[in-house]
């Protein structure tokens, strides 16, 4: 019975490791694999730290379990009268220092490529300006064939919540906030950047596969924080061009020249309802 | 110093027994200047607030497990005060719940239970002083808590029903600066900031007092390196508070000025908020984050260091062994405090501050893990070769170590800037800080309460009830917070009233239900603690001066100590951890006051 408590304190780390081990198969893991090159690197760093942390967790708990087990069992008349060991202190100061230094230096490269503007890739396409506001994402694209300028142009194209980007291309968005602080979070791409009022932050990413990626807000922005749901749609360059053109067409449509059979009426109706 | 000591010894009331002073009830128990009464007042207040904060947390958990379902009983019991029509949790109310949960737990529970309750009670007793250096200031430090509690409480009602601060405990502007941005938190948010200032004033008065007392009022022979680690931790915490708090207070006043007087510190121009008129001015929202975290990161250590110190003391006593590496323990606490001032930026890795700063803060943050690791190894070393007895105190101390390992290790992902990009503001961080603040600090307190209870009330707490409370809390705690790591990896963001509208999180609902059930178990387990605490006061086994055969000066005073603490002015002959010393032939402990054997300095060389 006197071994009950050491067992109790050893049982839970075992359970914790088991839960970690079965998590990927239970769906308690990354929502999807990373669909961006930097996301893949982030995942690799995650797994690297997981290995180091896992070893440390297991090691310290084996140590804790061992000393508890022995301390319960201690048949000596008195406990070991020791004030410590200088050598051990040196060992367990220097070893973790080295490991921690290794982890932090190992991260710098990915961080630099991700965030330091002078290291950004040169061949990026500035696709859109994304303005977060309570509680939606407003998106401004340049007109087909034009470049996105910092200030809004008369022929800019506007949508809400759906950000289209060409796949396999390094794209850059200008992230802004219209009111309070928000955060542009695309779990599938491992992208997160706060949108800070009064500041334009360039954010770049590259999608590796065609698809819809959930876009959520990761910084408390008011009562509707949870419902700022958007999408990043990665599509073929041709589809992307088509989308921008149709957006330009819809936005420029004045309702008179019926170059669209039937759908023109629909567009008109939709526009009318939008205005309400 | 010598002047004060001689004065102390010549003071006649030192040798008086409790009750000799003809104090009225009010001056003895209400507006008391006695550090022990103030400490116990703090302890009871914080335990009460612990229940309040816990109830708020259960509200949060309920919504995450059964989104938009009417909360059972709450609507009926409060007469419709809380919750939307029919008792449903509205998204506004949900935001208030987690904001106030964090505010209450941090400012009214964790900080005051460590520094206020245990700091007040233990510092003079452990260093052999008759009271704090400034008893009146000490009394005020307790009574300044109440305006804060009042402000926090009023903020629930003053803006009309269903209004409370709803901008997170971090209160980031622009959300917290412009009333239209969160209309339900108008006046309440301002009140919250004023309450925060009162808490700050209370802490500041405490910290001035602790520093002065520890520096000036130690008993003869109590050199700095003979001080128990609890005292070291309280001393370092007091320094941290004294240097960090002014920044928060200033920031709080700036935000109040912004909200009420039209100053523009944090709000930039040209924002159209909630279809209002465009804002004017040229503030910078990141300024608040820098100022806030410049305090609130050291505050994390304010919320942890005293628990580390107390656990060291309790652990050494329970394994009958000197602390392994006393001086490394002191130096690592000092290192944590020092580094604690240059890591605040790790809360802002995704905030858009200069990315070069991110790298610097990453390295300093990684380095602060080092002294924490050293402490863990030293605790394990302390148990190594000891003779342990598992009572409530020991269990909570061991849980402290185990949980602190988890909380410390999970921090590494967030200290690394690239992985933090993904984990920032997900449930991963929620798991991390609950493992540190609850898993470490509160388990430390759950150990400290029964350990020093006999000194407070002269009676022992019930050990079986204590163990039951521990087991239920431990299971409930891990059941609630361990799965949060998984949620974090799954990209589950914090502070979402209904995460399940996002398809990629739909499948996490069953897990959240499990966590909520564990949280309810944990919440109700705290009633055992309260019951044990109150009932032991009347029916607990009577305790002598030194029920644990411990070494500290406090155990040479009567239980409970009278006014002036010691019946014999204590003299300190050695370090606090001389357990199982070969010098004491008949017992396995050697009290600091025991002058009958040859004096010996502590610490290893």
Set out the fold topology.
The complex is a heterodimer of chains A (276) and B (605).
Chain A: H1 4-26, H2 37-73, H3 86-115, E1 125-133, E2 136-141, E3 157-160, E4 162-166, E5 170-177, E6 182-186, E7 191-195, E8 201-206, E9 211-217, E10 230-235, H4 237-252, H5 263-275
Parallel strand pairs in A: 1-5, 4-10
Antiparallel strand pairs in A: 1-2, 2-3, 5-8, 6-7, 6-9, 9-10
Chain B: H1 2-10, H2 25-30, H3 35-65, H4 74-77, H5 91-127, H6 135-143, H7 145-154, H8 187-216, H9 229-260, H10 285-302, H11 305-319, H12 326-340, H13 355-383, H14 392-415, H15 417-423, H16 427-457, H17 463-489, H18 509-539
Helix pairs in contact in B: 3-5, 3-6, 3-18, 5-8, 5-9, 5-16, 6-8, 7-8, 8-9, 9-10, 9-11, 9-12, 11-14, 11-16, 12-13, 13-14, 14-16, 14-17, 16-17, 17-18
Question: Superfamily at the CATH H level of the largest domain in chain A?
Answer: Cupredoxins -  blue copper proteins
> Which secondary-structure class do the elements of chain A indicate?
alpha+beta
Topology pattern of chain A, helix = H, strand = E: HHHEEEEEEEEEEHH
The largest interface is:
A-B, 100 and 122 residues
What's the CATH topology label of the largest domain in chain B? Cytochrome C Oxidase, Chain A
Summed up, the helix count of chain B is 18
Number of domains of chain B: 2
Description:
The complex is a heterodimer of chains A (276) and B (605). Chain A is of the alpha+beta class and 276 residues long. Chain A has helices at residues 4-26, 37-73, 86-115, 237-252, 263-275, and strands spanning 125-133, 136-141, 157-160, 162-166, 170-177, 182-186, 191-195, 201-206, 211-217, 230-235. Chain A is 43% helix and 22% strand. The longest helix of chain A is centred in the first third of the chain and has 37 residues, at 37-73. The radius of gyration of chain A is 27 Å and the shape is elongated. Chain B has 605 residues and is mostly helical. Chain B folds into two domains: 37-268 and 279-292, Cytochrome c oxidase-like, subunit I domain (Cytochrome C Oxidase, Chain A), CATH 1.20.210.10; 304-541, Up-down Bundle (Cytochrome C Oxidase, Chain A). Chain B is built from 18 helices and no strands. Chain B has helices at residues 2-10, 25-30, 35-65, 74-77, 91-127, 135-143, 145-154, 187-216, 229-260, 285-302, 305-319, 326-340, 355-383, 392-415, 417-423, 427-457, 463-489, 509-539. The two termini of chain B are 27 Å apart. The relative contact order of chain B is 0.11. At the A-B interface, α1, α2, α3, β7 and β9 of A face α5, α13, α14, α15 and α17 of B.
């Amino acid at each position: 019975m006197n071994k009950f408590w050491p067992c109790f304190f050893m049982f839970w780390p075992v359970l914790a490791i088991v839960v970690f081990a079965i998590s990927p198969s239970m769906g308690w893991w990354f929502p999807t694999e990373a669909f961006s090159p930097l996301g893949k690197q982030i995942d690799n760093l995650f797994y690297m730290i997981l290995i180091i942390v896992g070893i440390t967790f297991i090691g310290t708990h084996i140590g804790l379990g061992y000393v508890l087990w022995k301390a319960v069992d201690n048949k000596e008349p008195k406990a070991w009268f020791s004030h410590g060991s200088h050598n051990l202190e040196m060992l367990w100061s220097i070893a973790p220092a080295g490991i921690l230094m290794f982890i932090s230096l190992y991260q710098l490269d990915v961080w630099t490529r991700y965030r330091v503007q002078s290291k950004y890739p040169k061949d990026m396409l500035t696709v859109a300006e994304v303005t977060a506001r309570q509680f939606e994402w407003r998106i401004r694209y340049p007109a087909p064939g034009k470049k996105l300028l910092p200030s809004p142009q008369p022929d800019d194209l506007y949508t809400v919540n759906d950000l289209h980007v060409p796949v396999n291309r390094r794209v850059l968005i200008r992230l802004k906030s219209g009111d309070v602080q928000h955060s542009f979070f695309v779990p599938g791409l491992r992208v997160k950047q706060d949108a800070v009022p009064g500041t334009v932050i360039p954010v770049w990413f590259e999608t590796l596969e065609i698809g819809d990626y959930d876009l959520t807000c990761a910084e408390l922005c008011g009562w509707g924080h949870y419902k700022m749901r958007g999408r990043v749609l990665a599509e073929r360059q041709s589809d992307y061009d088509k989308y921008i053109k149709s957006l330009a067409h819809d936005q420029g449509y004045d309702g008179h020249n019926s170059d669209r059979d039937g759908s023109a009426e629909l567009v008109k109706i939709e526009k009318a309802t939008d205005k309400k | 110093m010598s002047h004060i000591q001689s004065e102390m010894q010549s003071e006649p009331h030192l040798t008086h027994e409790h009750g000799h002073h003809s104090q009225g009830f009010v001056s003895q128990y209400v507006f008391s200047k006695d550090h022990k009464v103030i400490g116990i007042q703090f302890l009871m207040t914080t335990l009460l607030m612990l229940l309040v904060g816990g109830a708020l947390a259960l509200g949060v958990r309920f919504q995450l497990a059964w989104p938009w379902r009417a909360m059972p009983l709450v609507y009926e019991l409060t007469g419709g005060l809380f919750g939307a029509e029919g008792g449903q949790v509205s998204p506004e109310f949900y935001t208030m719940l987690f904001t106030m949960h964090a505010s209450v737990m941090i400012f009214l529970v964790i900080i005051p239970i460590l520094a206020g309750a245990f700091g007040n009670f233990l510092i003079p007793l452990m260093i052999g002083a008759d009271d704090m250096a400034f008893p009146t200031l000490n009394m005020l430090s307790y009574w300044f808590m109440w305006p804060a509690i009042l402000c926090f409480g009023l903020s629930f009602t003053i803006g009309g029903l269903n209004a409370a601060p709803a901008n997170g405990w971090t209160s980031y502007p622009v959300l917290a600066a412009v009333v239209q941005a969160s209309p339900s938190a108008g006046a309440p948010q301002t009140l919250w900031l004023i309450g925060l200032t009162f808490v700050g004033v209370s802490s500041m008065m405490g910290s001035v007092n602790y520093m002065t007392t520890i520096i000036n009022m130690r008993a003869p022979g109590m050199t700095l390196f003979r001080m128990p680690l609890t005292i070291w931790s309280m001393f370092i915490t007091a320094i941290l508070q004294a240097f960090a708090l002014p920044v928060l207070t200033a920031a709080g006043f700036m935000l109040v000025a912004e909200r009420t007087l039209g100053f523009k510190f944090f709000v930039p121009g040209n924002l159209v908020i909630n279809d209002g008129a465009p804002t004017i001015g040229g503030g910078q929202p990141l300024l608040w984050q820098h100022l806030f975290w410049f305090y609130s990161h050291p505050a994390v250590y304010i919320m942890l260091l005293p628990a580390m110190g107390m656990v060291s003391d309790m652990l050494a006593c329970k394994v009958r062994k000197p602390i392994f590496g006393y001086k490394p323990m002191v130096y690592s606490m000092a290192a944590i405090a020092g580094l604690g001032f240059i890591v605040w930026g790790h809360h802002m890795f995704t905030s858009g501050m200069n990315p070069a700063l991110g790298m610097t803060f990453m390295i300093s943050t990684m380095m602060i893990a080092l002294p924490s690791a050293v402490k863990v190894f030293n605790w394990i070393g302390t148990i190594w070769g000891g003779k342990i007895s598992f009572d409530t105190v020991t269990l909570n101390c061991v849980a402290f170590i185990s949980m602190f390992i988890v909380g410390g290790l999970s921090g590494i992902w967030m200290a690394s800037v690239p992985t933090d990009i993904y984990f920032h503001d997900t449930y991963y961080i929620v798991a991390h800080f609950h493992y540190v603040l609850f898993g470490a600090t509160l388990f430390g307190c759950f150990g400290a309460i029964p350990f020093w209870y006999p000194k407070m009330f002269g009676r022992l707490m019930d050990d079986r009830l204590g163990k039951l409370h521990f087991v239920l809390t431990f299971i409930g705690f891990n059941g609630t917070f361990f799965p949060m790591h998984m949620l974090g990896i799954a990209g589950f963001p914090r502070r979402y009233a209904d995460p399940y509208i996002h398809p990629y999180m739909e499948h996490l609902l069953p897990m959240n239900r499990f966590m909520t059930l564990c949280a309810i178990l944990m919440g109700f387990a705290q009633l055992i603690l309260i019951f044990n605490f109150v009932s032991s006061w009347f029916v607990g086994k009577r305790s002598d001066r030194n029920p644990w055969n411990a070494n500290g000066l406090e155990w040479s005073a009567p239980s409970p100590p009278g006014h002036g603490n010691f019946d014999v002015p204590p003299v300190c002959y050695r370090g606090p951890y001389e357990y199982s010393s070969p010098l004491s032939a008949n017992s396995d402990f050697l009290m600091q006051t025991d002058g009958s054997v040859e004096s010996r300095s502590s610490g290893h060389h």
